Amino acid sequence: MNSRKSFIGVVKSVSDASTFVVEVVRLQIHPKYQKQYTVTKSYTVHNANKVALKVGDKVEFATCRPISKMKSHILVTR
To answer: What region, left, alpha or beta, does residue 29 occupy, with left being phi > 0 and alpha being psi -120 to 50 degrees?
Structure first.
């Protein structure tokens, strides 16, 4: 079975109709001090269906085969 890791994030920028950047914020716990801190990471996501997105939209995306040098994630839902 092919399982894909999925993420939920907020659209940070839209470069063209098929590519956008999503920012994912998650909490991590420090191994020694047991304090929570936020980790932010940006992903370049492919929009195959040309769904109209704007900055601030919440989206779900998953990993896939590499589409280009920077893109290896694809839009799942809006």
So the answer is: beta
Q: What residues make up the domain containing 20?
A: 6-77
Please report, for the domain that includes residue 71, its CATH number.
2.40.50.1000
Q: Is this structure's pTM higher than 0.90?
A: no
pLDDT, position 15? 86
Are 59 and 22 in contact, with CB atoms under 8 Å apart?
A: yes
Res 68 pLDDT > 60: yes
Read off the pLDDT of each residue in 50-74 and give the average, rounded to a whole number: 94
When divided into structural domains, the chain yields a total of 1
Rounded Cα distance, 58 and 78, in Å: 7
